[in-house]
Amino acid sequence: MADQARTDVNTLGEFGLIEHLTKNFKTRQKTTILGVGDDAAIIDTGGPEQLVVSTDMLVEGIHFDFAYTPLKHLGYKSVSVNVSDICAMNARPQQITVSIAISNRFSVEALDEFYEGVRAACDKYGVDLIGGDTTSSLKGLIISVTAIGRAPAERITRRSTAKVGDIICVTGHLGSAYLGLQLLEREKEVYLANPDMQPEMKEENKELYAAILRPEARTDMVDLFAKNNIIPTAMIDVSDGLASEIFHICKASGVGAILEEGNIPIKQEAQLQALEFNMDPVTVALSGGEDYELLFTIDPKDLEKVRFLPNIYISGEIVAKEDGVKLHTVGGNIHPVRAQGWEHFGE
Length: 347
Ligand code: ADP
Ligand code: MG
Description:
By secondary structure, the protein is α+β, with helices and mostly antiparallel strands. About 35% of the residues lie in helices and about 25% in strands. An eight-stranded mixed β-sheet has the order 8-10-7-11-9-12-13-14, with helices on both faces. A six-stranded mixed β-sheet has the order 1-2-3-6-4-5, with helices on one face. The longest helix is centred in the middle third of the chain and has 18 residues, at about 110-125.
């Protein structure tokens, strides 16, 4: 072992690591329509519908902090974030499995609370809990959820099929979850410094807290698309920030994109809170994660249909790959966007 090279996992980054680990796996089953690389895998059923399957893990101390995360919300969120990946394929979620690794710090009552949240999410999204696994961990809580969905084959939407000229749309406000998290972290610091101080959760920031603690998956959008006869040309859910997600679509589709700064949806509460933190609201929307809205593209012939739908924001256009990924600012400037945000060029 001593003379073997040791490469730190951080050198590859998350996506580089996934690519490295999975590149030597070829799919061998005819039923595997799509494997690694999208929000969910696609499996043939032999019928007119296909299955989509996605897994996500949440780890205490990495994805959530019990200093400010109610167990019931955590149960709900564990389901939402997985259902969100099913929505990103334009499919309807139907089943979930939930696996947990728990340390002896957790009581039955605590786990009951977590499962109350899981149940509330199952009710909301109309999914069935069909299994899972329960085991112990040395430290903390680890949650792994798998979600299974279904859709007619022709409606399933990938990341890799955006075309030059397509219109870029977003289903809701961005940046709120990141700002909610910053507020909760700030309250935690105050509390740690002085345990007699009660954390102050201001009513006006309610929606920012909800965005990070209890996000909703946009199953309603999947229904709205079906009802209005719209099939997005490409789609992804916004788990890592608008910039990172538009890069995924562009890379997978072999295209570029131009985003209109003035048309990036940001809630007023979020704008005000960003400014209070001395942050640029647009940078927060581009780089802050966990909003679980859908980012999708449509053929321009569908623009008139989408324009009159509620809660859809028309935020940019797909351009040639050579044109890169750019932000057209309200001031009329064009800035390159990086996967983590956008370059201010010394502003
Ligand atoms: P998302 O953010 O939509 O949940 P991820 O970025 O987690 O997607 O994953 C991207 C793709 O890589 C998905 O197809 C996922 O199934 C796959 N993937 C992630 N980790 C692994 C792994 N350890 N082994 C195999 N596939 C993986
Ligand atoms: Mg996703």
